[in-house]
Write a structure and sequence with these properties.
homodimer, alpha/beta, five-stranded parallel beta sheet, 12 helices
Chain lengths: ~290, ~290
């Protein structure tokens, strides 16, 4: 019949839309994509709310078992649930592609994602440049292409939304080598770690080309957002250095690097400032 | 008690979240912001769905009668409904500000907006640059600052989301001069009009500085999106020239100017192409 790809929004089981909930209830099987983002509630809460079982779909399953997910979808409805909006992640592109090949209609049901909900920090959505991703650095792998993108944005006085890394169902090198299906606990990058990595890259780049204007410095104003849309969401603004030590609590975290702020934007952001004096000192604000 | 600012999503009464619907039902008064965006259903459908009356809040009311909207909000809950996400528009910033002054807690409830739902056209959200607005040209007023922003985006190979103008509750110059409260019918910019204006600006700019690389030409690939999230949504890709004459039906319309497309993006967009041959001829596609 139909493959529904349903956005769950950002927080808990009640952030699904009424349309999405009706679709879920019409489905014979329900899968939850659980490796690019998370809600603050587990699948048990979803199952209780829907009155139906929910199957966790990990990366392996979505990427290699599309036909299992789509089994009988020409006769029954199947729901594929995605945290945020269905089109926020690209992970299920293959699934949708496969459904189309099998002539199974795909109906997406939209919802909030961090890409628009970030507006709650007071920086207007139409003043953002390209979004960047910051992944966990390792001793030997420190991908820093975000730096050039942030630089392009700040050169144009635009804000930058930084999406922070999530590692789910990772194997240690040892377990992988031995073929043991033992997985590490999930890791969600904190704002503190993101700030550390940003400062590390800043130092490397500044040392390499001391004459060029940096994308940001330790005194640049940024806004950290944790658990956007939840009752206990936390938004704190400050310099990168100030945010190094702020405790934002549990996941998910995001970070915005402010470009030039309109004074009305600055007013809202300042209300979140960890220190209003340093905010006034370092914020770049336009009066018109 | 609480001012809820509730996103309604993009299509009809059932795009509200379950959390949003519960909030609405707890409210003594419900206002609908109806001048920056619209659903495909009228307030009667919302009233029937909520089982409560809904008051249309026009610009005048939101900007100058915040205290009427907030009356008794220290004792009862008040809902302010916004099409899309609460933070998509800036129109109610003053209302939220006034509530804060009166120590009334403000709780936003997020939802989809075109800023993230546009992902449905196949161009990935993290490959967009700054969003631009295109307003109705008049004989004497043709604001074209969008051109420079689009140029910055396409120079960086990024896509551009163009939000198209809405005119609600406008007065003719004559009626305004005579102080008559007679309003013109609402106008929603079509994709065709946006394309005409884009081409007009292109010609002016190209004539003024023929040596510089244009932001786009009549052969640039764009994607028109109408009524995103509705059952009858329409997505068509083609060159600007090709989209001049495509009938997209009723509002709301949006337009995306494609930058360089990853081949997986191009595959999805091509499925929407009005002519696959011209698409292949003019699409700028990267293979990695």
């Amino acid at each position: 019949m139909v493959l529904y790809v349903i956005g769950l929004g950002l927080s808990d089981e009640k952030d699904i839309t009424v349309k999405g909930l009706e679709a879920v209830k019409s489905c014979e099987r329900i899968y939850l994509e659980a490796y690019t983002s998370i809600l603050t509630v587990g699948k048990e809460r979803l199952e209780a709310f829907y009155g139906k079982p929910v199957v966790i779909a990990d990366r392996e399953m979505v990427e290699s078992e599309a036909d299992v997910i789509l089994k009988d979808a020409d006769k029954v409805n199947v729901a594929f649930l995605v945290v945020g909006d269905p089109f926020g992640a690209t992970t299920h592109t293959d699934l949708v592609h496969r459904a189309t090949e099998l002539s199974i209609p795909v109906i997406p049901i939209h919802n909030a994602s961090i890409m628009n909900a970030v507006g709650c920090c007071g920086l207007q959505l139409y003043n953002y440049g390209q979004t960047v991703s910051i992944v966990f650095f390792t001793e030997t792998w420190k991908p820093d292409s975000f730096y050039d993108k942030i630089k392009m944005n700040t050169d144009m006085e635009l804000h930058t939304l930084c999406l922070l890394d999530i590692k789910v169902k990772e194997q240690s090198i040892e377990n992988m080598a031995r073929g043991r299906n033992i997985y590490e606990p999930p890791r969600y990058m904190t704002i503190n770690t993101a700030v550390e990595q940003l400062l590390e890259v800043h130092e490397t780049r500044a040392a390499a080309s001391p004459e060029s204007k940096p994308a940001y410095t330790k005194n640049s104003i940024v806004v950290g957002l944790a658990r956007v849309g939840c009752d206990d969401q936390k938004i704190v603004a400050g310099t990168l250095e100030e945010l190094l030590t702020v405790d934002f609590g549990g996941p998910l975290h995001s970070l915005v690097i402010a470009g030039k702020m309109h004074f009305l934007e600055a007013e809202v952001v300042k209300a979140f400032a960890v220190d209003k004096e340093t905010f006034d000192k370092y914020a770049v604000v336009s009066q018109h």
